[in-house]
Structures are given as C-alpha cells and as structure tokens.
Amino acid sequence: MRITHVVVTPSFAGTERYVVEVATVQAAGGHQVAVIGGDPTRMRELLPPEVDWLPGDTTRTALASLRRTGRRDVVHSHMTKADFVALAAAPTTRGRRFSTRHITAPRGYGRAARLLAPVVRQALTAEIAVSEFVAQHLERRPEAVLLNGVRSQESGPATRRDTVLVAQRLAPEKDTDTALAAFAASGLASRGWTLTVAGDGPERVDLERRAHGLGLGDAVDFLGWVADPADLLAGSAVLLSTAPAEPCGLSILEAMAVATPVVAAGAGGPLETVGLVPGAALFPPGDAAAAGRVLARLADDPAGRAAYGESLRELQRSSFELTGHVDRLEQVYRR
After folding, report:
1. How confident is the model over 85-127, as pLDDT tens digits?
2. H/E run at residue 64
3. What is the per-residue DSSP string for 170-210?
4. CA–CA separation, 131 and 318 (whole Å)
5. Fewer beta carbons within 10 angstroms: which end of the chain, N or C?
6. What angle is formed at CA 314 by the lines to CA 20 and CA 144, rounded to 5 degrees?
7. How far apart are CA 36 and CA 4, in angstroms?
8. Domains and CATH numbers, the chain
9. Could you report the per-residue pLDDT of 28-66, keeping only the tens digit for each?
10. What is the pTM of this model?
C-alpha cells in the first residue's frame, strides 16, 4: 500500500515518536510510506531511508507536502490540524482516510474548526482511538480502539539506580506537582534516592520552585527535554506517572518493555495497560500521600519490585508489542 502519515507539528514528542515507529514497521513490511510533519532533524534521523519525510510544521506546509505525494491508498492523520489537511488534499490523494485520536480533547479549537469537525469526521473511512478511555470521550464512537505498541526489549540491568523517574511534558494535564509531593511524602530523599524529571514545558519554573519549597533540594534533578529516554527508563528503579487522564501513555509502555516498575494514577489509559497486572501499583489521581506510600513500599521490597517489573514486561510482550499493533492497524486499513 501507499501510506502517508500526517502530523502537523514542528515538534518531536509522543505522537511523533509513535508515527516514526509505525512508519518504520510498515516500510519494513513492503509498503511505500511517507511521513509529513514533526521536527525535521529528529524525523530524518530516526526514519529509515525507505520512508520519505516531507515538512509539515504548519497547515499550509503540510497541505503542500501531502498534495506533492500524489495519489495514496491510505492517508493517516494524527491530531486535528492533520485531519483538516487530509480532507483538503483528498481530491489529489484520493485515498482512504484514517484518523487516530491520541487525546480526549474535541476535534478543533476555534469556532470555525468546531463547525467543520463533523464534516471531517463524516469524510473519514475510520477513526481510531488509542484507548477505550479516549474512545469514551469522543464525539461519537470510533470504528476501532488500538492501544499503542512498543518494541520489545531486554530487561533493564538487575541493579538499578535508586531513582524515581518522571518522564512527561511539564504541563498542567500531567500533574507533575503530585509527583514532587509524592516523592516528598515517600521519605525516599532521606534514604539517598533521587527524583529525575525528564521533560520540559510551561510549568518547569514553577515546579522547580515547588521542589525547593518541599525541601527536596539536590534530590530532584530536572533534566529538561530528553531526546532518547531509553537509558533512563531502563536504569531507573521506578517510573512514576501522575497524569489523571493519560490517554494511553507511551512512556509507560516503554518502561514496561524493559521491566521497569510503573507507579501510575489509577485512571485513564493506564488502567488498560499497567492496571491489567495483578497488584498493579496504582494510586487515586492527585493523591500524593497514597502515591508516596506506593513508592516507599516498592523501595522497601527490591525482590517484589523486580517481580512486578517482569510481570509488566510479560504483559507488554503479549499485548502491546509494536509489530502486533501495526498488524491490527493494517487490518483496519483493509476493512
């Protein structure tokens, strides 16, 4: 098939990472694949030579790039702007159009976009949600729910750093403040543990002040945006995810793949991933005290922590493997 993925951003974050991984597997399977959008340096660096990359940092640029690809069998858009671009280019591409809803927000942010959203939805061959949680929040039921998949990996090292890792955008919807408060409540800082925050965003300055106010001092390390968090995920003792409405959680799945124990807010997408493991380390969203108790319990039980991580890895391999995800996606294309 001739497949084009469209994501109208100049950035490289979870959605762009997902597109790179899926496009790579599809190209390896013999499809003719193009990707439009995302950070030029990172996309060119990570996509294999057989995948064409075209610029798409703005709606206008993405539309020109998509028209340049000519006729396609599948145009797969990711996020609202890409959906509009795919519809506008339809007379040129003529392909079947699919949209993945990566978040729960309504399609379109302005009044005009909201008015056009039903037209965009009606013109799709199929809409795909990244979790049942997302599906339940959309304007209408999607044709498919496909939770993300990631590449299976070897387990991380047997001896890991005494570090709690937070790997997420520092924005309100991620509730990183609860991560800081949970780490403080756990008492792990006084035992030599550290909290590593990998991510950037509008809340970073306030969060750094908050960490200081909690008396965490040198026990918290704000790394900023990390291009490749693989080593952090594999070497940390625990991944902490605090978003109260996480759509799916790519970093969670990547942690599971290397047997890193995950402590997550018990809501949204994590209930459909981490939550499937008996005894999953979940806490009520926003409850820093409860999250702190879970962190302390895991820190006190290295053997139990390792066993929990291996259970998560087994689940990832059986249910959230990238190749299987792409197979299911292509079944949706062919319906």
Report:
1. 999 999 999 999 999 999 998 887 777 667 778 888 899 999 9
2. helix 59-68
3. -SGGG-HHHHHHHHHHHTGGGGT-EEEEEB--TTHHHHHHH
4. 17
5. C
6. 50
7. 7
8. 2-149+321-334 (3.40.50.2000), 161-319 (3.40.50.2000)
9. 999 999 999 999 999 999 999 999 999 999 999 999 999
10. 0.93
